[in-house]
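In this supplementary section we document a worked example of the pipeline. Step one takes a protein sequence of length 264 as its only input; no multiple sequence alignment statistics are reported here. Step two produces a three-dimensional model, which step three serialises into structure tokens for compact storage. The input and output of this example are shown verbatim.
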Amino acid sequence: MGIQLDHAGLNEGSWVLKERINEYWSDGAEGYQKCIWNSIRPGMLKRRWQEIIREGVGNETARVLDVGTGPGVIALLLADMGHSVTGLDRSEEMLKMARKNAKRLGLSVDFKQGDAESIPFEDQSFDVVVNRYVLWTVPHPERVLREWKRVLRPGGRLVVVDGNWYLNLDGSIKNRFWRGSALLLASILERRNALSRSEPDWRRKLPMTFRKRPEYDAELLKGLGFTDINVHIIDRRSLGFTEYLKYGYYGDTFMISARKEMNE
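The serialised model returned by step three reads:
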């Protein structure tokens, strides 16, 4: 196996920050499950996400690792498309939701607990490594990208879906007002108290929070030796009017895909 990072590889501040991030997502697992259900149940939104992911992953059946799988959104979409999928997450509460979703939808995904910075698989184990809304949450993005590259086979694909969450939210008075109305709408439609879920204070301590993305992501990938780097801007309006009303204040998201060189 490649070199693995453990607790000793992180300073105390980074480890505490990772624990706080994990607690935030674990505490919010049930609410997040209600937030994502429309993305994985049969319907227009599911089809649209599968179209987006297919563009990055490709059409050939692949061994896929979904890092930071949460309730299993991308893992389950890919399993439904015929791929062999493993979902990895640090939060056991999120994994419980993912396993329930898989059972409810009749899909087979191997969900495992693990850290994005220290993946419990051997070198070159997967054809594709994919993640959605994960890279912004890690304290050491370059370290994480190196680890994701390690478990990719030569010629394998990395697919990252993410956004400029707080650059868009904090940079616009209109978007801050929009957020208040959107949270009320989400509370009604998703039957959860979205208004009680405040933005995490740890977000300001993360290096990706205020970077201009996906430009910065492309620079990191190029520096790590990835090739065939492609960016696809995901227009929020293309995900449906309701989704746009609920989450459009965060701005458009993006998908960036890249390939590990064959000689690595």
